[in-house]
Amino acid sequence: MPLSDWLKSRQQQEYTQVPPQGVDVPEGAWGKCEECGTLIHVVQMEHSLNTCPDCGRHYPLTPAERIIQLTDTDSFVEWFRGLEPTDPLGFCAAKTYIESLDAAREKTAAEEAVVCGRAAIEGISIAMGVMDFRFIGGSMGSVVGEKVARLFERATGERLPVLMIIASGGARMQEGMLSLMQMAKTSAAVGRYRESGRPYIAILTDPTSGGVTASFATLADVILAEPRAFVGFTGPRIIEQTMRQKLPKGFQTAESMLEHGLIDMIVPRLKQKKVITDLFDMLGGRSA
């Protein structure tokens, strides 16, 4: 599917859309930031890459928007299309796993929770993966794990640097143990890739959690994060119930992870392309 069509099918913006009082404007032209309450014109949000210009809150982007934000025009070529998950457990809760997959595909116009391919950023050829939280919480099932592993294997063979933009709730429970096995598979693929000497950069977005955090997301040479992104393994409620104590304010934010050494840098969205380019240059990403 062309990126232009993908963009047209994106989900409605999370910020509440309300027009200024007393002004006759087209419906949906203004939005209200859910964090600071600032009224923002939709064009201004697009120019700021879906971030609030007042408080800096980063609202979600689709994979297509991420690709357009970061890569050179028309440089992205998708890999590994056509891979589809099975239903090994015959899983059924409120609805069946197959129904959840169908709903996610209709909602996102995507095949799975990750899009992989080759692209260029300021002339640097890269292998790139972008995760989509709208697709069953960006969860990692067998197909997501397979795509990520194949991405690193192909990047190893073609000696390409790797960029991963990550948003995930963790392992996909509908696939049981097969989902958990993807942690080992993707980690092994990253390990083999590192032997090639090529750089791997990861950007952790809101949220990055569970088995994805515990595998390929935190194995990068340089780990970046967006401001105030949730980064952790399990949710704060589970931790509080297990430890029987209240967690400190700001626990599991990108800022806390930076302070404690899990990530290397917090980079606002408007600066990401330059920072990534500079890092690839410093790490030898341009050399074949």
Overall domain count: 2
The CATH topology of the largest domain turns out to be 2-enoyl-CoA Hydratase, Chain A, domain 1
Main beta sheet, described?
A: 7 strands, mixed
Q: Based on CA inertia axes, which overall geometry fits?
A: globular
Biggest β-sheet: strands ordered side by side in the sheet: 3-4-5-6-7-8-9
Order of helices and strands: HEEHHEHEEHEHEHEHHEH
- Cα-to-Cα separation, first versus last residue: 30 Å
For this structure, what is the CATH homologous superfamily of the largest domain? Answer: 2-enoyl-CoA Hydratase, Chain A, domain 1
Structure description:
The chain is an alpha/beta fold and 288 residues long. The chain has 2 domains: 13-59, no CATH class; 60-282, 2-enoyl-CoA Hydratase, Chain A, domain 1. Helix content is 33%, strand content 16%. The protein contains 10 helices and 9 strands. The chain has helices at 3-8, 42-47, 63-70, 97-108, 142-158, 177-194, 210-213, 236-243, 254-259, 272-282, and strands at 30-32, 39-41, 77-79, 114-121, 124-131, 162-168, 200-208, 222-225, 265-266. Strands 3-4-5-6-7-8-9 form a 7-stranded mixed β-sheet, with helices on both faces. The protein has a two-stranded antiparallel sheet with strand order 1-2. Helix 7 (210-213) links the parallel strand 7 (200-208) and strand 8. Helix 5 (142-158) runs parallel beside helix 6. The protein starts with a helix and ends in a 6-residue tail after the last helix. The model is unreliable at 6-15 (pLDDT under 50).
Compact summary:
The protein has 288 residues and is α/β, with parallel strands linked by helices.
